[in-house]
């Protein structure tokens, strides 16, 4: 290896030697070593001249040659003064190459490098964003400690730049500055915090990268940006996606509770490796507690799913590991398809992916079983890929597929790649031990292999057979005899040692052969490998103990040979054995037990996968690949037992809240507002403190709970809260926003007594008298902080450290009743929030949703059914077929219209031309926005157009003519009543309030009878949203499900309530002004809910 | 010549030690200094338990097959070439280039390498990083070279070393990928063409774009702005590959279809395309170019996108495994090595099986013969064959199949005398091509363009090829 020697040269001879080596190998200058120095000098001289010339072309040439030198690893540092002068060159290419040079050598020539700084400082103010960005890039890449303050300033300015591209570069510069001067950490964290708030997809990846480098432990910086990052993720560039996903995986593991506990039962006895001891304990403690996933947790899992279809293997792997580490076990399955897809890629990608699959397949066979054949080995695969595939095949082997696999293995054993053949034999051994049905088959197969011509194969078989026999209580004397014969031919030491050991272990079962083997071995002792010698000694000792008559002399002969062996290990062993087995006056009590010591029952070895323990490393990481902890590896924490306060992720909505507050209510908000603005100022510092505060609080709450004897009741209620939050996951944002305002109130309560009073009034005035709102807040810490002042007021005799047991009834009964007294007016402070969060979502999803009032805001549809209706059958349409369906999107043609999508198919073999809508026969008031005529539709072609129809909130049919160039067809659209609605987001409180106003003749109800399994929240939700386009209202009670919508035309509210009763009945109530539609909807919902 | 580095630290106090690390030049002091340097890295200055600040890709070395490092690029401090010794060590151990482990751990660094076109791209990593991230990036670098120079070879890279350097500079900032989209890069750095290099040498202008790109800054980062063509055209190649393992008896052990749609789009302005299929349900597992709107695909199974300019891979897909895969060719084979004799017989015949009425062309059979084979004396009825006695690879270039007379190759195999006969017959790797056919039956329905007024030329081409198509014998 020629360059090795160069490298060594370099060690002794210094830098120039490298150059020498490079020169000698490259064909450019074949001059001798000594001639080189002078020629090099000369070359540099003329380069200098060229750099100082007036012509750009000469300069460019010189710079190109210099870059060439750098690329080859040659030293060009002495040209620094000549080069640095050109930093201000007008020519972009010269400039770029000078930058390349500067970045490489500035560190060595710091004083001279400073000359260039002013140029960059000027460029940082350039109106062109790319020049600003590249100046920042170079400035931050010059590793000169003196300019740290300048860099810091530049980064700060750039982080506020209008151009996202410059901000992205600022994020990159953060890491560079940090590696240059770690003392800037605090200042840099401030910049990171600022950049994390950035909404540009360009910046997100880079700033998270900087975060991971500089302050990966400052998880608190992520909270507020969590949802934004999740939502942006799909649009971030690929590399950023990888970094963000890895960071969010770690984040999720610290912030959410484990979603796995419930699934444990489903895992067919597969041991859960993640379950640490304390978790196990917790599991038994909290068995009954149903788990509901934090909506934010769900958000992450949902938003990463599309990325499984990225073209970038790193992104796919990142998502796969995210699913593996944080999603519920039942959902992990979807990653396997994508991972298998990656196996088509380059060998390097295959290598990494196969390693990860190997680790996964140990724990969860089921995931990859359908793809078993994708892991079949091809003779053209590199050996490392072959062995990994084999590993996975072994992991996937079970009773059902073992016969297929064994047939496949038979092919592999014969492979020309002997290393692979040997690995296959080990695999067969592992299958034999794992699956008892095939043990004998495998053993027979392996014995057949003993007559193989290839020694490696035979040796490997011997070793595996040895292991198998050791595991088998049933004796296989024949096999042992056969193997003893092999000793004559086989030369591989491991195999010989294995045979000897086997004979020694079973010497009493092959009494005739064993001494003979020993005799042969004694003959060849001196020429054996050390490993074999040790086994000969063992064999001798065992025979001496069982059959001393025949073997005494032989053993002593061997012991004598061993005594003078060159290897100290063998000498030691000889001495040890002699003392143990040969009785003499010095031998102690131990020799009595010699037989027991040597012929003790040995535990069978476990044939385990080398990937067995790899899963404690995060999948997809370097550490996982190397199976050692790599520098800078960040441990994935265990799930917290209790989720930290989820409200920390709420986004700042205070300013918005003011805007949204109805004018009439603004007055009441005043005190609160004042407080808010104060807290905003202190936001940075108080954030973290309130954070830790809430954590400690919740922890103490937990302790109390554990100490409590009547735990069950509290358990139940808390679980109730949780299930609520689950059903309301769609509108979770809204509620968390509300929580936010409360946590503000809470942090306020620490600020001082006086403030406390103030906040309390605002807080209490905000709380609705009617009821459920309290129970809708699901976090213990929040509810605690909130109730603390209340409970003090309500029951002063009660101590502050009220137990949870007390508190819960308090919320349900006492406090609510009391609150009635306190709050004569119910002021919906929480009202603005429902309007906010959907708009937040809407912004991010690019949907323009209009809000008609602060109370009723249109939400995104919970569910869009794919069901299509036939508009025109192809038979009656002479080959033109049309279907329509309701996409449940707000109509773009008018806000009183329902949007309808029509798919037109041409089933003829001729073009259909000029498809348009002809005469319309609409009932009174009904309006229709037609689609633009379609010029032509190719044969077999299809096209989807959308139109809007104002149905005037009736289910009357819209009839019109669908015309082509030649024909007119009368068609009609009759809307299902559920499509005349738009989902509305509202809180439970508002719902109740509105419902209260819509009683009497505005209410219709019916009783439904159905099997209890149809009354699970998810089933009800699914059935209702399937029929009608309604929004889900978070409910405080398990047995009541509420849905809200408004009619498209008139905007009247449509409130649907499903109240579960005892047994298998439920009450379906619909409140609406539009009683006709209400009763139609009731008619439609009833059969759907009652059927199975 | 040994110029001492300026202002070397005198003491080894914590702070100075760190500075020293910055000053130390492994190029000047050799790898021993390098060792020292890295050992100092987690100096107590940073506080125990904190990570030393590093970054993803530290350095890149390009190494050719004979083990010469012909290009190096460092993104921060210089890492001595001697770090590659660990790589060479692994390479020697692996015997075969294909078997060099992609990830190697050395005492102070980690080396992640890829092997492409007879070149090794070895990157030096200092901290934990997803290995696929680096591998994927290195492949992207190689792709870019391929794109720029037409080939990714040592000669091409050496000839264009300045462009390579500029590219690397743009692609990676501080070890983190910056611009990897070919459209953006091409705006920043113009690819070399013969004409341009002539013009450049006369006028003295450069490869570097003098107008600054806008794509990176817009929300369509993959497309360059201001594209103009006189002929607007959009071509799609649907290429399907059959991966299969056929066993001795001719039955299919494993078969699946993997497909890609490669696009060549030369459309002016900002066209918004949507491509629909007659039978989109066939596509089971799809991966997308970032330009594709995922939501449209999810809801309507339509590929809707604003394309990058030029050639790119739109999607790659797998056809759902429920569909039975038609195997277009069969092979009759009889290969035998006689016991105790230094020769064997070799006889293979290829015939069409399910070819959907299309001609199968470009058939090539490659066989890795066992090591004991010395030479082969064969007669092909069609095409020509070569046998490389060093690598023991037999290649038979068949060409087209004509069903009237099936092509066959038969003759004698000379074995090393005295050596045991090989136990296993070698597997046959088969390549073929069927034009105008997508074996899965996938059909593009239509391509619509929105956003621009002109009418583009559109075209779709279907090809079926053998992927990893192996016949065990």
TrEMBL record, chain A:
Keywords: Cytoplasmic vesicle, Golgi apparatus, Membrane, Phosphoprotein, Protein transport, Transport. Pfam families: Adaptin_N (PF01602), AP3B1_C (PF14796), AP3B1_C_2 (PF24080), SEEEED (PF14797). It is a peripheral membrane protein. It is found in: Cytoplasmic vesicle, Clathrin-coated vesicle membrane; Golgi apparatus. GO terms for cellular component: AP-3 adaptor complex; clathrin adaptor complex; clathrin-coated vesicle membrane; Golgi apparatus. Residues 678-717, 770-783 have a biased composition (Acidic residues). Belongs to the adaptor complexes large subunit family. GO terms for biological process: intracellular protein transport; vesicle-mediated transport. Residues 809-956 form the AP-3 complex subunit beta C-terminal domain. Residues 980-1090 form the Beta-adaptin appendage C-terminal subdomain domain. SUPFAM superfamilies: ARM repeat (SSF48371). Residues 1-11 have a biased composition (Polar residues). Residues 268-285, 666-677, 718-735, 745-761, 784-809 have a biased composition (Basic and acidic residues). It comes from Leptonychotes weddellii (Weddell seal). Residues 1-27, 268-292, 664-809 are annotated as: Disordered. This is AP-3 complex subunit beta. Subunit of non-clathrin- and clathrin-associated adaptor protein complex 3 (AP-3) that plays a role in protein sorting in the late-Golgi/trans-Golgi network (TGN) and/or endosomes. The AP complexes mediate both the recruitment of clathrin to membranes and the recognition of sorting signals within the cytosolic tails of transmembrane cargo molecules. AP-3 appears to be involved in the sorting of a subset of transmembrane proteins targeted to lysosomes and lysosome-related organelles. InterPro entries: AP3_beta, AP3B1/2_C, AP3B1_Ser, AP3B_C, AP_beta, ARM-like, ARM-type_fold, B-adaptin_app_sub_C.
From TrEMBL, chain B:
Transmembrane segments: none annotated. Residues 231-472 form the MHD domain. It is a peripheral membrane protein. It comes from the Eukaryota. One of its GO terms (cellular component) is Golgi apparatus. It is found in: Cytoplasmic vesicle membrane; Golgi apparatus. GO terms for biological process: intracellular protein transport; vesicle-mediated transport. Its main location: membrane. This is AP-3 complex subunit mu-1 isoform X1.
